[in-house]
Every structure is written in structure tokens, then in C-alpha cells.
């Protein structure tokens, strides 16, 4: 079995060019206009009323509207995830560059997947990406990139998950301010946040 671990820049070139080879160049669709030279790091998460994001290694709800919205926002971009999130997906997110941050994750070789050992390895790819970098979880990955995230996209899930075991930090939006909102089907609300002028990375 082959594994998609990246030891040096040469190893990641096939994946970096993956979307171009498919004729689907990275594009920005993160809810806000950007300059062509600016790549944003965006946290995207669905959170229940009691701050839950997971239970037993999976998402404790199913909303088609949220899944559709997640795809609309992230397709054509790069998605950073931890090994638990990767395992929950079963297969790579299509038409996205999948960056799995893990020292041990065993991932079958795929042209759209790179396994990187730590946050610095992920950030070292920034100069070579022509698309946005979405932080998609789980809990430890959100914590690791908290100081790097430029914007948050937060879907409010109208549930209280009593037996959840994975939560967002209560202060994860500290230093951010809302700039846009959207209502989805199934009674879901999405709020877009950006760093306030007083807040710096």
C-alpha cells in the first residue's frame, strides 16, 4: 500500500497541480471578494447550540442544506483536516486539494491528497497555492490554526447534542466581527466573520 506522505516540496507538486490538470483551477468562493494576490485562511464549521461539533468521531446531525453549502464554499480550494476528520470522510473530498495534518495517518496515495506532519508544513504551501485554505476540523486542527485564520464561516445548528464529546472553544470567535449572514434551507443560519481591526494574528 502506498501512502501520500510529503517529505519535501517535490513530493507535493502532483497534488498542488491536481485541480489544474482536471481543468478546474482553484477559485475563491468564500463569501467575500479578495484581491487575486491574496490567499485567505478560512475556518468553516457547523456548531450546535451547546457548542458541539462531533460525537464518537462523526458529525451528530445530517442537514443536506449544510452539506451543500459546505461543498459550494470549499470546492476548488484546499481543505486542511486532521486524521480523525479524514477517516470520517471515507474518501477524498472531490475537486478539492485534501491536506491531512497528521504524523501517523495512513492514507492511500491519491493525486488530490497530501499528508503533512504539522501546521508549519501546511503553512509552507501558502506561496504555491492560488486558492483559499479552508480549515475544516476537527477540534485539534481548529485550535492549531486559531491564530492563523482570517475569517470564519459558521453554520448554526438548531440542536442541543447532549451526548457530544467534541466541542468548539467558547472563545473561538474572540477578535472577530460578523460582516455577512445567510439563511439556508432546513432552518439553518450561516454567519460570516472577519478579524476586527483591533485584532491581529
If strands are numbered along the chain, what order do they take across the biggest sheet?
A: 5-4-3-6-1-7-10-9
The shape is globular
For the record, the CATH class is Alpha Beta
What name does the CATH topology carry? Answer: Dihydrofolate Reductase, subunit A
- Helix and strand string, N-terminal first? HHEEHEHEEHEHEEEE
Helix content: 10-25%
Biggest beta sheet attributes: 8 strands, mixed
Question: How would you describe this protein?
Answer:
The chain contains six helices and ten strands. The protein is of the alpha/beta class and 201 residues long. The protein has one domain (9-24, 39-131, 148-187): Dihydrofolate Reductase, subunit A, CATH 3.40.430.
Brief overview:
It is built from six helices and ten strands; from the N terminus they run ααββαβαββαβαββββ. By secondary structure, the chain is α/β, with parallel strands linked by helices.
Amino acid at each position: 500500500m502506498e501512502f501520500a506522505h510529503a517529505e519535501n516540496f517535490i513530493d507535493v507538486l502532483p497534488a498542488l497541480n491536481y485541480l489544474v490538470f482536471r481543468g478546474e483551477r482553484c477559485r475563491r468562493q468564500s463569501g467575500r471578494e479578495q484581491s487575486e494576490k491574496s490567499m485567505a485562511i478560512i475556518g468553516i464549521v457547523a456548531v450546535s447550540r451547546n457548542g458541539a461539533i462531533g460525537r464518537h468521531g462523526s458529525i451528530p446531525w445530517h442537514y443536506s442544506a449544510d452539506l451543500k453549502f459546505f461543498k459550494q464554499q470549499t470546492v476548488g480550494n484546499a481543505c486542511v483536516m486532521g486524521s480523525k476528520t479524514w477517516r470520517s470522510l471515507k474518501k477524498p473530498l472531490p475537486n478539492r486539494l485534501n491536506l491531512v495534518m497528521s504524523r501517523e495517518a495512513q492514507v492511500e496515495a491519491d493525486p488530490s491528497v497530501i499528508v503533512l506532519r504539522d501546521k508549519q508544513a501546511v503553512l509552507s504551501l501558502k506561496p504555491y497555492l492560488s486558492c483559499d485554505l479552508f480549515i475544516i476540523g476537527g477540534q485539534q486542527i481548529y485550535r492549531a490554526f486559531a491564530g492563523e485564520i482570517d475569517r470564519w464561516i459558521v453554520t448554526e445548528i438548531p440542536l442541543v447534542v447532549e451526548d457530544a464529546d467534541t466541542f468548539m472553544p467558547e472563545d473561538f470567535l474572540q477578535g472577530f466581527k460578523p460582516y455577512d449572514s445567510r439563511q439556508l434551507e432546513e432552518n439553518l443560519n450561516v454567519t460570516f466573520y472577519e478579524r476586527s481591526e483591533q485584532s491581529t494574528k
